[in-house]
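Service request form, structural biology core

Requester: graduate student, group of Dr. S.
Request type: structure prediction, single chain
Budget code: on file
Notes: please return the result as structure tokens.

Sequence provided:
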Amino acid sequence: MIEQIYNYFTIEMLYFWVNLGVLPFWFLIIFFPQSQLCKYLATSIFPIFLLSAVYSFVIYKSYLNSYDFLGNFNLYLGIDFVANLFDNKLYLLLFWIHFVSINLFVGGWILKDSQKFFINKFLIALPLIITYLIGPIGLFFYWIIRIFYAKRLSLYE
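Core staff response, request fulfilled:
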């Protein structure tokens, strides 16, 4: 039975489930930010725990396929080395899970921070959607909105 589960979760299937799996969390964050379900599911450690489990599984699959983990450090040598790393689908999936996890974490942080400053949920919907798609730009848009609600310009907090 465990072998059937292992064989079911191919790279393509894991990619599909990761993309599909984060959508309910984003749906809660964007459309139901004040709900208890959002508080206990989307902005808690729960989605990060699930994505970490998938990340660990992909690392395990990479290990079984004799992936060269030391070769990952070549990414610091130049952009061509990063491009070479992305030739491996397992590494590409690891990168994608990393990207999706960080964006979801940032979306949860934006939601919690906006609630602290009583920012209208309709106003933060656009930065949250942008964060889902292209994380840093959505965070920047939220920061611009936050300046007006916090009534101060703070580069750290």
